[in-house]
Amino acid sequence: MKIQQSDQFKYSSDFKNFYYLGKDFGPGIGFLSNFLHSDFRIIKKNLEADIKELFIDSKIVTFYETTIINDTENDQIYIGFEPDFQDEEIDETYEKSIENKSELELFQSEVWGSMHLSQNNFFHILRNWNTCLLKKEPFILLYQDENNWFDLISFSSQSSMELFMTAHI
Questions:
Q1: Based on the number of CB atoms within 10 Å of its own CB, is 102 exposed (0-12), middle (13-18) or buried (19 or more)?
Q2: pLDDT tens, residue by residue, 54-64
Q3: What does 16-80 look like in DSSP terms, one character per residue?
Q4: Domain extent at residue 34
Q5: To which H or E segment does residue 4 belong?
Q6: What pTM did the predictor assign?
Q7: Tally of domains within the chain
Q8: Disulfide: which of 11, 122, 156, 161 matches 77 by Cβ 3.0-4.6 Å?
Q9: Is the pLDDT of residue 94 over 70?
């Protein structure tokens, strides 16, 4: 297995959540990491019901930090941020680039920052993240492999996680 991109997390018993060990969420996998870190707590209590209601029956869900769009025609989930233009002027070039486009089209064309993964892969990540939370795993690695599959691996220590990373980069 070869890791294409990854983010590392550590469990906090004070917050009953994983916190991100990096400085800032980057592009790509960072959108998924941000959702898991910031917005997952909204759905974790009724995970299976929320998966159906929010991600199968709905097309667009906006959380505190992230927006998730279900592209049902292509079995893809897009995760990204919608820009907040409250105090900014929007230039004409940008305005024309978003004119008459749906949120899905803006994510697909990367006018708005986003990443995508299959619906099955997204649901797999949600369930595994929840399992890691329930088990209070000390460290977890969220990664994308060479086949563009995203997954989680738990570790007992940060050093074992870093050794794993070194062996698979």
A1: exposed
A2: 888 778 888 98
A3: TEEEE-SSS--STHHHHHHIIIIIGGGTGGGHHHHIIIIIIS-SEEE-SS-EEEEETTTTEEEEE
A4: 3-84+94-168
A5: strand 3-12
A6: 0.88
A7: 1
A8: 122
A9: no
d(CA 168, CA 127): 24
Query: pLDDT tens, 136-163?
Result: 999 999 999 999 999 999 999 999 999 9
Two tokens at 23?
A: 């400085």
* CB contact at 8 A, 22 and 9: no
Q: Is residue 89 part of a domain?
A: no
Give which of 123, 145, 146, 127 is closest to 68, Cα–Cα: 123
Q: Which of 45, 47, 48, 84 is nearest to 64 (CA)?
A: 84
Strands 60-62 and 67-71: antiparallel
Coil vs helix vs strand at 167: helix
- Give phi and psi for 28, each to the nearest 5: 70, -120
Pair of tokens at residue 36: 């898991």
Sign of CA dihedral 115, 118, 119, 125: negative
Q: What are the beta bridge partners of residue 70?
A: 77
Averaged over 34-42, what is the pLDDT? 91
What 8-state DSSP symbol labels residue 147?
T
